[in-house]
Amino acid sequence: MKYRILPHGGEKISVIGMGSSVIGERPEQETIATVRSAMDHGVNYFDMAGGHATIFDAYGKALERKREQVYLQIHFGADYTSGEYGWTTSLKKIKKSVQWQMEKLRTDYIDFGFIHCMDEDSDLDTYLKNGVLDYILELKKKGIVHHIGMSSHTPAVAHRVLDMGILDVLMFSINPLYDYGQGITPSAAAVNAMRCTAAVKKRASASSS
After folding, report:
1. pTM for the whole thing?
2. Mean pLDDT of 107-125
3. Distance between CA atoms of residues 80 and 87, nearest Å
4. Which of 33, 122, 174, 205 is spaced 20 to 30 Å from 197 by Cα?
């Protein structure tokens, strides 16, 4: 496995990470075995934006006595308290969901606290007004969140948050099925992703100089 060093922090992260969007459809023991197999092959970065709430119990068991060996990416705005995936901009619901996720994962810290699926300016405005961003920043100040990230499919929104200077990581997907549904061609999505990647690198360089 190859690894890259995170510019904002120095963590050594595997170039291959593991997502969890559909693994929750499988039996718990299979999920546990899959996570441990990934770790055995050098994967140390796991994204917790899953399609099913069942992944959290499974990951908690899989990472028992191994938590310090991995980095977990937990999404603020992804709500699993109903038993399935949901999305919310409510500060109260986000606090409840994040606490629920941490309890299930058997952890008291979050390696990467992600602003989840921030695609609309109006949603970002809501986060600014209702205190969600302040909540994430406060958790980072307390050391509960080590790094702040964001996932988005919208370059303009991504750049707007990058300009705030609060992000350590940006996840900008190139997903043909999703992009076609939004009227975006794969080539346009690739250009958007490259622009966002360049912006992250530029800001990281500026902040370290």
Report:
1. 0.83
2. 94
3. 9
4. 122
